[in-house]
Structures are given as C-alpha cells and as structure tokens.
Amino acid sequence: MMNELPIIETPSPNFDERSLPVTMLVLHYTGMPDAASAINWLANPESKVSAHYVVTEDGQIIRMVDEAKRAWHAGRSHWRGVDDVNSASIGIEIVNPGHEWGYRPFPETQMSSLIPLVHDIVQRHRITRGNIVGHSDIAPARKQDPGELFPWGQLARLRLALPRPTKNLMDPHWTDGGFMLALERFGYDIADPQAAVVAFQRRFRPELIDGVICGECRAILLALLLPKPRGDE
C-alpha cells in the first residue's frame, strides 16, 4: 500500500532509536503559519522536534523520519501506561495553523491523503483503535491538537479511531473522583484533572469544551470503557 501513496522524502535529523515496539499512532497539527515553515522547523536540528510524516492541506505526504526510528513528536506525554510515547508511536503532523495562527477545518484534499496513510500504518503495525490518539490526549496539560475541528468521526466510521458513543447512553452517576479514575483507566494522564477533562471533551464531546464533568461526559466515558464502544459507525 505504501508504494501506492506518493511520498516526498524530506529527511529530518531529529530522531534516535526506539526502545519499545510501535503500538500507537499520534495525530498532531503543525500549529504554524504555513506548511513550509512547519517542515523547515521539523527538519531543523536546532528544533529537536520531528515527525514521521507531514500531510499538507493540498494532500501532499512528506516523510521526515523512517518508521523504524523514534521521531521526536510527542514530548512529555502518557497514554495507557506508556510514558515514552515517542518510542511506542508513529507521529503524523497535519498542516493547520492551529489555535494560535487561525485554526480552521481540515480540507477534504488533506483528509483524502491522511486517511489512506493512517489505514496503511495501522494495518502494518496492528495498532488498535484505542491507541489512535491526538496530541491533546497524550499531553492534556500542554496540547490542544489536532483540536475540536478534527473529523474524528470520519476516521471512526472507517474503524481508524474510536467512535463517539451515541447509543443507549447511561449516566453512571460517578463522583468527580470516580470520573477521574475512569478517565485514568481509559488512558489519560490525570495529574492535571481539569486539563484531562478538557482533552476528553475536545476529543469526544467537541461542541462543548468547558472542563465541567457532567452526566453526558460520564455516560460517554462509561460507554467507551465497555468492551464494544457503540458510536456513529
């Protein structure tokens, strides 16, 4: 499959050796004014950041680090017991100005390239849907990307991400402490509880990101913890 995707090679020197097998895929937005400045930054040895792939708004796929190597995209992060997320993941930077430079929807041309790339990576590495995450999921206190406009539902319908549960939702009436324990069990770092709730909402209830634990949030999280999440598939 990879041979069928037109890929531009733009190597970054910012990588080292993995210490864990690949079990995750992390999606980011570049958060810079344009694609060129983002790619230049990711290729700059002084930046100490990189990603395996960049997907531009017009659908170009740029490979910057070989998948066998540990790219430096996740920073200080945690997901489902893993603290060295860089070692355990493939990182894709999706060109978008982000919240700082004029956040906007991800164009269809971009998604049309991103989706087959994600599908290919997930198939080859046998990455489960629960380990296809956004940067804000693994670093809730620091990051907002790929953000509330990212079409997770589009990926979920192709079984390339967990769906947002929508059917037979029931509020378990957990205390706030109970909700946080459930959020930690699901995978989030809850060291900053408010940030963890906001990150969860950004991903699974993006129309209202207020950091308030409510019945809807509890019901969505309960459904996600069940063996088969039921959503908009």
Describe this structure in words.
By secondary structure, the chain is α/β, with parallel strands linked by helices. It has two domains: 7-158, Lysozyme-like (3-Layer(aba) Sandwich), CATH 3.40.80.10; 176-225, no CATH class. It contains nine helices and eight strands. It has helices at residues 35-43, 85-88, 98-101, 108-125, 135-138, 152-157, 176-186, 193-204, 215-225; strands at 7-9, 15-17, 24-29, 53-55, 61-63, 69-71, 89-94, 132-134. Helix 7 (176-186) packs parallel to helix 9 (215-225). The longest helix is centred in the middle third of the chain and has 18 residues, at 108-125. 42% of the residues are buried.
Structure summarized in a few sentences:
The protein has helices at 35-43, 85-88, 98-101, 108-125, 135-138, 152-157, 176-186, 193-204, 215-225, and strands spanning 7-9, 15-17, 24-29, 53-55, 61-63, 69-71, 89-94, 132-134. The chain has 233 residues and is an alpha/beta fold.
